[in-house]
Amino acid sequence: MPTYFIDTSTLAKRYHKESGSEYMDRILEQLDARSLISHLSVVELESVLAIKTRTGEIDQKALNLARRRFRADLAGQRLIVAPSVHESHFQSARKLLVQYGVAEGLRTLDALQLAIALDLHRVGHIGALVAADQRLCRVASLAGCPAINPEQPGPVLI
Prior knowledge:
Layout lengths: L2 E4 L1 H8 L5 H9 L4 E4 L1 H16 L5 H16 L4 E2 L5 H18 L3 H15 L5 E3 L3 H10 L3 E2 L10
Parallel strand pairs: 1-2, 1-4, 2-3, 4-5
């Protein structure tokens, strides 16, 4: 069964059509796949949607629809919220920033998401991180977690 950890950069594509949206939809529509997100993604998605609304990229109606679709994906278990973020994830994120922050430009919340993905990958709960962020995909690969960028699609199944 293919298993994915979906970063917020990709998650947002499910609720607002843009480059990579079709790929994200295909992942979530796979009947035998599991797609995990973090608690952080729930918060980050709300921020992304607020920004899109504030800047006029989407209107209030589209915002409400996106929120409903997200809740439906959670209720239908097309998305599963991974176990809670732990202190160890923050420690791992710091180590990732020390190792990749300067050379690769890794950012704070990306480091935390990657720490969670690496933990899930290490114990066999995910096969790959899915992120619409070349930098994050590169660092994930360097750190030992396969990564898929929906804006540069390859095969969906892992």
